[in-house]
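Q: I'm building a small set of examples for a reading group on sequence design. Run inverse folding on the following structure and report the sequence directly after it, with nothing in between.
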């Protein structure tokens, strides 16, 4: 699991027998694989023609999965529509423009929905964003007001940010102008959507780490313009954070408690309000949320898709798609949820490298998961630089870097330290060059990455 956290390295693909045995849904629903062999799949958006776009930050590309025209439940094919991007995550359409949130900018390109291809050239519309620290990824969506909303998380677990745009949701005109901070105090709001009955904005938020297994809760916030949602001075229902002390702006702002609390470290990511008018069972005013799952909890928790039921008495959380966690054996990690033109629910999984399709249609009456063609990652070869290196000297300098960047605070200290698994020089270098949140992106030169790799490898 730690390699998935550090590098985005996928886990084992799930076979049909295991899925039939372990995956759980409410009565009347079935699940199958829409696409597999898609490592590091993250956020999704449907085109007007019913094709599905999928972002892959660690691969630097956007994949188009062709709609299921032959009715077998699987995508009819795939192609890369744009590549060589800087860790693209959030994607959305505004008319014939496809917008992409990269690590330090937002860009857009003309998109032909009928042909499923891009046109003309890719152009930046929002630049100068920071992409350092723990939560470098960015999510974007267009709201009911046709404005571009952009979320980016904090650089750290707990700190006061130097860049006031971190740990916020921002708002821009479609051309990138008139940018403003919409709401603050949101540590890492990876997913957000608007409720269709009142156009209120709701955002998931990942609570801080290193306070034990059961605190603080992760959050769902009803986000309103100008509000402050607590981080880093408050956790959960406005519980003060002892590591920060009093809020120096307490006379200017009041923290807003969450609309709903998820269990601690469940890591809620994508959220989608869905049309349930034809669903079986008790589903009214529902949002689906992908819980990516804990990374440093002593007993893993999360790893499921939940339904949030908005009632007169509050928000009720239920398991919708479960079974990813089998007594600590993790089969998958849900990331995003999207409803297709066919009414089915599509769920991305960056661990199993799959897109699931959940349907209540009688045409899909059993779990049918196509075995993945993905092969297990080949063993890393030893990089050329190792043979000619003075590994002892490099390891000594790497130890200083390890101390300088306080790596021990996550990997050796705290209530649930994240121990480093046995890994190769090449795998450690990749993790340092392209880390998976919450591991920060460190400002290291190529030589420093090698020195740190030499030290970490020597300690295993």
């Amino acid at each position: 699991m730690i390699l998935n956290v550090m590098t985005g390295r996928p886990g084992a693909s799930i076979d049909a027998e295991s899925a039939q045995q372990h995956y759980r849904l409410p009565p009347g629903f079935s699940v199958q694989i829409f696409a597999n062999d898609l490592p590091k799949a993250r956020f999704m958006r449907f085109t007007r023609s019913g094709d599905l776009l999928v972002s892959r930050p660690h691969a630097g590309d956007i994949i188009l999965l062709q709609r299921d025209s032959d009715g077998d439940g699987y995508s009819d094919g795939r192609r890369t529509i744009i590549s060589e991007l800087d860790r693209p995550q959030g994607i959305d359409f505004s008319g014939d423009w496809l917008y992409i949130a990269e690590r330090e900018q937002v860009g857009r390109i003309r998109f032909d929905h009928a042909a499923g291809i891009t046109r003309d050239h890719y152009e930046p519309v929002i630049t100068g964003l920071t992409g350092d620290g723990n939560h470098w990824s960015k999510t974007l969506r267009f709201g009911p007001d046709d404005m571009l909303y952009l979320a980016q998380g904090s650089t750290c677990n707990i700190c006061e940010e130097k860049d006031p745009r971190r740990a916020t949701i921002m708002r821009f005109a479609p051309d990138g102008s008139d940018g403003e901070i919409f709401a603050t105090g949101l540590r890492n709001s990876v997913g957000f959507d608007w409720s269709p009955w009142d156009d209120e904005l709701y955002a998931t938020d990942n609570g801080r780490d290193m306070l034990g297994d059961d605190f603080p809760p992760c959050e769902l916030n009803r986000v309103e313009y100008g509000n402050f949602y607590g981080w880093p001075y408050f956790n959960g229902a406005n519980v003060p954070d002892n590591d920060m002390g009093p809020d120096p702006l307490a006379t200017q702002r009041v923290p807003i408690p969450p609309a709903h609390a998820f269990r601690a470290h469940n890591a809620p990511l994508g959220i989608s309000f869905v049309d349930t008018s034809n669903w079986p069972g008790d589903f009214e005013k529902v949002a689906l949320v992908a819980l990516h799952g804990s990374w440093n909890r002593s007993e893993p928790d999360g790893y499921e898709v939940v339904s949030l039921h908005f009632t007169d008495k509050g928000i009720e959380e239920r398991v919708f798609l479960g079974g990813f966690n089998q007594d600590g054996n993790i089969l998958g990690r849900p990331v995003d949820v999207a409803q297709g033109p066919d009414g089915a629910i599509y769920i991305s999984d960056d661990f199993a490298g799959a897109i699931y399709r959940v349907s209540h249609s009688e045409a899909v009456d059993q779990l049918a998961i196509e075995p993945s063609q993905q092969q297990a990652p080949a063993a890393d070869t030893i990089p050329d630089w190792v043979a000619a290196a003075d590994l002892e000297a490099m390891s000594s300098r790497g130890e200083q870097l390890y101390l300088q960047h306080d790596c021990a605070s996550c990997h050796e200290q705290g209530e649930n330290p994240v121990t480093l698994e046995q890994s190769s020089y090449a795998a450690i270098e990749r993790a340092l060059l392209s880390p998976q949140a919450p591991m920060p992106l460190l400002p290291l030169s190529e030589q420093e990455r090698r020195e740190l790799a030499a030290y970490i490898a020597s300690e295993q």
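Confidence is low (pLDDT under 50) at residues 362-379.
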